[in-house]
Amino acid sequence: MSTRRFTEPLPDPDEPQVRQRAPNLTPAPAAGQIPPTPVPQRQTSEQRSRAHLPRTLTQVLSEADARVVEGNLGDFVPIQTGFDPLDGFIGGGLRKTELVLLGGAQGIGKTIATLQVARNIAMRPDQYVFYLSYEHTEMHLMHRLLCLESVNPPEIDLSRGLKLRDLYSIIVAQRAKGFMGREDGSSSLQAILKENPKTAPSLARIARYADRMILVKASPAVTTLRAIKEMTARLADATGGNVVVFVDYLQKIAVHPERPRDENDKVTIIVEGLKDIALSLDVPVWSIVAADREGLKSKRIHLFHLRGSSALDYESDIAIIMNNKYQIMTKDHVSFNPYAAKQFRDWVVFTVEKNRAGKAMQDMEFQLHGQHFAFDPRGQKVQQQLIDDKVIES
After folding, report:
1. What is the DSSP pairing of strand 385-387 with strand 374-375?
2. What's the whole-number mean pLDDT along residues 108-117?
3. Distance of alpha carbon 94 from alpha carbon 81, whole angstroms
4. Is the pLDDT of residue 309 over 90?
5. Where in the chain are the domains?
């Protein structure tokens, strides 16, 4: 059976359509492997169209009852991000219909954290990831993942860690042997990575989820909200609704033919559109958000420093703000030790500033290994007390 092509035209959403059951995209298990537990089908496009019609509470209860009887517990079981204690603070992980925003200054590690969360989710045999990047090509994201897999989070074995320049050197050197007629000069990228002892483990780990991670190099000119929704709808049908959408980053999404009055109006249109995708397609949406100019001048960035903050605050279910721990430590406190503080340069404070279903203003910290494009997902609550723009030693 052939899989659905994403280039096929979508039916008119206003006209009820009877769609065929989506194909199962899970690869067949290799010999000797235990096949994954079958996953019940989620909402079809026809069911989603009916969801916008008025229904009695009795009908809603009946639908929920049918899902539970079928073993479909996706509405009750969160999808873990793999970052601890973040999952605990946000109710166990990501949930269907929720919009999660991740903000912070440039270079703080937003893309690193987002791609790592996407990787963690894609490693589950029952989940797919749809990753749209307006900043990087699919090839560059693959290179980042190879470096990330070299330290194997959460193990974080830095002794085997690859940097981008290491990866490029291995590929170029091995390919050069082929050009010089050396017998050991591999000709393909996969052969080079597979044969080199430093890259072989990374390639093997990526292979475990490569079929469940869908990458798109988005364009600020053509990848509009409608395009994102159409692609997500096809993926939701093809995967039984078991897909999580990641956007890097929100302000880059094209909004034409709409003509926003200003930047705030544009952000409002985009964030409302992303929330609509989460609600109407019954999927979690995670999006990176850039800070405004005033926020970049601040010692510590908050949710109100993000571009279009009022709409972001209203529409999001969870908002996480990243700050470098060293930068938000007070330098004039009597107990401040500049030498001891150097250890905080590689730590990033994640603050859950909005949490619709739980406690907000929860602070945790994770160590960043930027050269390997990875966080140590085994974080901890911040031991210092955070007050406004400062961290005070306890």
Report:
1. unpaired
2. 97
3. 7
4. no
5. 77-162+198-392
Q: What distance in Å separates the CA atoms of residue 168 and residue 142, rounded to the nearest whole number? A: 12
Query: Can you give the pLDDT at residue 224?
Result: 95
- Angle of helix 138-151 versus helix 164-179 axis, rounded to 10: 110
Tell me: pLDDT of 306 over 80.
Answer: yes
For residue 88, the SS3 value is: helix
Question: What is the band of 201 on the pLDDT scale with cuts at 50, 70, 90?
Answer: very high
Query: Which string of DSSP letters, residue by residue, matches 144-163?
Result: HHHHHHHHTTTT--GGG---
Contact between 266 and 225 (Cβ < 8 Å):
no
| Cis before 284? omega within 30 | no
Domain 77-162+198-392: CATH superfamily, name plus number: P-loop containing nucleotide triphosphate hydrolases (3.40.50.300)
Q: Which residues contact 155 (CB under 8 A, 6 or more apart)?
A: none
The residue with greater pLDDT, 131 or 36, is 131
Q: Is 331 exposed, middle or buried (0-12, 13-18, 19+ CB in 10 A)?
A: exposed
**What is the rounded distance in angstroms from the CA atom of residue 270 to the CA atom of residue 253?**
7
Asked, as a colleague might, if the bond just before 257 is cis with ω within 30 of 0, I would say yes
Cα 342 from Cα 357, distance rounded (Å)? 36
Helix axes 225-238, 263-281, angle to 10 degrees: 20
Q: How much is the pLDDT for 147? A: 98
Helices (H), the chain: 45-50, 57-69, 86-89, 110-122, 138-151, 164-179, 189-195, 200-207, 225-238, 263-281, 293-297, 309-315
Give the whole-angstrom CA distance, residue 169 versus residue 152. 21
Asked if residue 327 lies in contact with residue 295, where contact means CB atoms within 8 angstroms, the answer is no
The residue type of 128 is Y
In the chain, the percentage of residues whose pLDDT exceeds 70 is: 78
Where does the pLDDT of residue 338 fall: very low under 50, low under 70, confident under 90, or very high at 90 and above? low
